[in-house]
Amino acid sequence: MESITVGSFTISEVEDGVGHLPPMFYPGADFESQPHLLHEDGTYHIRGGGYVIQGQDAVVLIDAGAGPDDVPFPNEVANAAGLAAPPKNIMNSGLLPASLAELGIKPESVTHIVLTHLHIDHIGWVAPKGERLFFPNAEIYYGDADWTPLIANVPSDDPARLVMEFAREHGVLHPMSESLVEIVPGVRAIHTPGHTPGSYIVAVGSETDHVLLTGDVIEHPDQLSQQGIHFLTDGDREQAAATRSDLISKISASGSPIATAHIPAPVFRRVGKNGDWEPAV
Ligand SMILES: [Zn+2]
Ligand SMILES: [Zn+2]
Prior knowledge:
The protein has one domain: Ribonuclease Z/Hydroxyacylglutathione hydrolase-like (Metallo-beta-lactamase, Chain A, 4-Layer Sandwich), CATH 3.60.15. It has five helices and 16 strands. It has helices at about 75-80, 95-100, 145-150, 160-170, 235-255; strands at about 5, 10-20, 45-55, 60, 70, 90, 110-115, 140-145, 175, 180-185, 185-190, 200-205, 210-215, 260, 270, 275-280. The chain has a seven-stranded mixed sheet with strand order 1-2-3-4-7-8-9. The structure holds zinc ion (2 copies). One zinc ion binds near residues 216 and 233.
């Protein structure tokens, strides 16, 4: 697992599992000319999990993985994608506690959690199956605009709803609606709507020297140069594209390292002088 330092902070990747997404999840992306991106099972393998920021007497988790259970590959997705032999699971998960333990971090040591948005693969370990708070001492921040579409307006047994309603009942949630929210000094959440209305990215470090944890704003490496590539679950495709384009302009100008939620290694990357991705560590 990769890590990077910025100022007095260390940011480490924490793995929860691997997702297996067919090309149809990336409308506009050309996988045919880049067959190396696809595995033998016909899917693009993405990372699932989050990041942990250590420093300033805080342990801040950014996103909380999919939770303890694997997510089976839906038949309708296999049919729509034309996969005769799809992988068993669309998302393998369950590794987050072990990944934190490898870093010497116990669940009770986590002081803050920022959920970049409320899709289930980012919140699962907050309250697995809606039964208990996995991080008993953590104050949890999320974008308020996600609540109605992704929690209140979904079936009562929806996994994301079970997780978030349990957390709300236990008084640990801090809904964010401002454009910028300081979580602890040096860790700021910035509203970046589009993928979901309540999406936030997280900046770690100072105004001029920082690393950005960008959630699902960028999903495919070619989105750096091709604005016509989208992601199937982008809630508002036009707004997502505008937010992505704005973020890419900023990181191209600043050279700041970023880490997306899902794009495979290198985990920490930056836009180099030639305009392509380069590893940041
Ligand atoms: Zn998402
Ligand atoms: Zn995601």
